[in-house]
Amino acid sequence: MSEQKHRPIRSFVLRTGRMTPGQERAYNENWERWGLEYSDGALDFAARFGRDGPRVLEIGFGMGASLVEMAAAAPEKNFVGIEVHKPGVGRLLHSMSEQGVDNIRVYCHDAVEVLRDCIADASLDTVQIFFPDPWHKKRHHKRRLVQPGFIADLTTKLKPGGILHLATDWENYAEQMLEVLSAAEGLENTSGAGHYAPRPEHRPLTKFEARGERLGHGVWDLLFRRL
């Protein structure tokens, strides 16, 4: 009973969706080359990428389309993606192989644990979280990823001057994000206090985002800098 009581609240539910044959093949063929194991502990960027370069961490990349597009457009950067859903990881690896993108490494694990045990403090140039699960019912808001404790942990992983970039299409979640980030110690809003940011050109417009714009739905970007 006490174990259940103290179990951490997860921001995700592991879906049971099976990988397609293509995703499974891509996973099996490419995991050794591009996959990162949580059990290996602290990540050595230079060793895993074979070079130094700006370090970008994306949490919850879904099927990975925008991450692959960003990595292809910025070959000088080293991208690390974290995603708990194996079909999404398989799809990302398939896209990387198909498009010849070699500057992404990927964890298939809980981001909270990866951050805690694998990412050194003050080691990242950018952290990005795009369209996390909004958990739109009020009773589920406690499951949202963007909470004060998590943001405090993220901030320690950024280099001074590093950027934390969030985006959501749920206005209520955007308001919570703005409130949490504005109150966080060691962060400043690059757009000025209380303001959202315009979508930077380097963040690709997703298909569902473009559809949402046509339907009049809003999208909110937040860019905060570590002091």
Automatic annotation (TrEMBL):
Which residues are substrate-binding? K137, D169, T206, K207, F208, E209
Gene3D superfamilies in alphabetical order = Vaccinia Virus protein VP39 (3.40.50.150)
Superkingdom assignment: Bacteria
Stored Pfam families:
Methyltransf_4
Reaction catalysed by this chain? guanosine(46) in tRNA + S-adenosyl-L-methionine = N(7)-methylguanosine(46) in tRNA + S-adenosyl-L-homocysteine
One GO CC term of this entry?
tRNA methyltransferase complex
**GO molecular function terms listed in the Swiss-Prot or TrEMBL record:** tRNA (guanine(46)-N7)-methyltransferase activity
Per UniProt, S-adenosyl-L-methionine binds at E58, E83, D110, D133
Q: Give the transmembrane region(s).
A: none
Which pathway does it serve? tRNA modification; N(7)-methylguanine-tRNA biosynthesis
Protein family (similarity comment):
Belongs to the class I-like SAM-binding methyltransferase superfamily. TrmB family.
Xref: HAMAP family: tRNA_methyltr_TrmB (MF_01057)
* Name of the protein: tRNA (guanine-N(7)-)-methyltransferase
Q: Which gene encodes it?
A: trmB
